[in-house]
Structures are given as structure tokens and as C-alpha cells.
Amino acid sequence: MLRRLIVVAGVMLAFLPAASASQDTYLEWFKPANAHIRTAASYLRTGNVDFAALALEELIESRMNENADSVLSNISVATIQTVEKALAQIDANEPRDARQTLLNLRQTLFVAHRNNNITVFDDCVWSLVRKGKALWYFRKNPPDLSDQSQVQKTKEATSNYLNQLNLCDEQAGSEIKADQTWQRLVTNARQSLERIPAEALDAKDKGLLYRFIIEIRSIDRLLYFRFG
After folding, report:
1. Topology of the domain comprising 2-117
2. How far is CA 29 from CA 44, 76, 127, 158, in A?
3. Residue scoring higher pLDDT (113 or 212)
4. What does the alpha-carbon distance between residue 196 and residue 176 come to, in Å, rounded to a whole number?
């Protein structure tokens, strides 16, 4: 399975638009395709398998037409092949594997964009989601707040997530900035993140730290579902 994913990743990286290709044209395809990917991944996480399958089926139907730029068409084909694999995993009653396939696909696209200087706001939120893993670790593995090294690691994870959140807020376009859901989620996450160092860590309050992490993680999932 890992070998197949690596092969697909290689295909997608090889066929990513060169600098001379129209990024606008590529993004016209990527934005709705990515919306289907993240919607399906989110539904699979919550057990809504039928809705996830529907999102993937809609993506498969949206493949580029034969008259589209050949490079962009090849990315579409590689992506849809992976999506078809995820759909087959759903049909085989393997929702966890299907979700992992989609998350691997999303990471492949993220890396491809970075390597080819393609800028898309969705990638900023995806990077935020990935940075959250260091903070979520302390949910199941509470730090020893009497150990300064563990406190420092928790502060670093908090700071890294907050910095990425602020970066995404800076990069958000006017339409997203005006979105009340975006404003509410970012404001609530920022407030909790800023309170962690003094109110939870320095005060050695494990219960409060846990509540902050749970709240931020919930916000993180909503940010991904809507914007990642």
C-alpha cells in the first residue's frame, strides 16, 4: 500500500505545473478538488461514510476535460486515481485506510506546491493542521509541569501553532477575512493559545492545559473542514 502511494506521489510531483504554466488555471481546478478531499476526510473521521463517498464521487466526476492543458490534466488524473483508491477502501469497509489515503494525497499536493512555488491559501491552513500534532501530543501525554524542559516543549508547540495561525490570518484574502466563521475560530483559538503559557503552564494547572488543548483541537478540525 505504501509503495502504491509513493508511486502516485511521484507521478503527481512529476506532472505539477511548471513555473511557465498558468497558476490561475491550475488553482481553478485545485480549489474545488481540495474542498472535496478535505470534506471526505472530515466525514470519514466522524464516521459519515456515505457523505464521504458522495464527496469523492463528485470529485471523480470533476476530472479535467480532454482539451485542458496536458500538464494540468495529468495532475487531475493522478489525483483522481488516488481518490478512486480511497473510494474503493470505503466500499471495502476500510474507512480509516481511506482517510489516510486522502491525508497522504493532501500532503503530496502540499509538497508539490511548495517545490513548484505555487501559493494557495489552503496550504497555509494545512500547515497549521500539521503543526497542531505537536500540541495534541500533550493531550494524551500530559507534561510534567514540575519539569522545566517539558514545560518548555509545550510552550514551543503552543508558540509554533500560534505563529502559524497568525500567518494564515495575515495571508487570508478579503473574502475569508470577512467570513464570520473564520473570524470566530481564529479569535477563539488565539485567545486560548495566548493563555496557555501563564494560566496553565506557569500556574502548573494540568486540567486547564487539557481543556485548552481540547478546545483548540476542535477549532483546528473546523478550520481544516472549512478552509484547509
Report:
1. Four Helix Bundle (Hemerythrin (Met), subunit A) (1.20.120)
2. 23, 8, 21, 34
3. 212
4. 27
Q: Identify the pLDDT of residue 126.
A: 96
192 CB neighbour count, 10 Å cutoff:
20
Sequence spans of domains, the chain: 2-117, 122-227
**Of residues 8, 66, 70, 62, the one with CA closest to residue 33:** 62
Compute the half-sphere exposure of residue 219: CA atoms within 13 Å on the CB side of its CA. 24
| Residue 152, all three cell numbers | 518548555
Mean pLDDT score of the chain: 86
In the block, cell 494564515 appears at 168
3-state secondary structure of 221: helix
The reported pTM is 0.82
Sorting pLDDT into bands at 50, 70 and 90, what band is 203? very high
pLDDT at 20: 42
* In the block, residue with C-alpha cell 493559545: 193
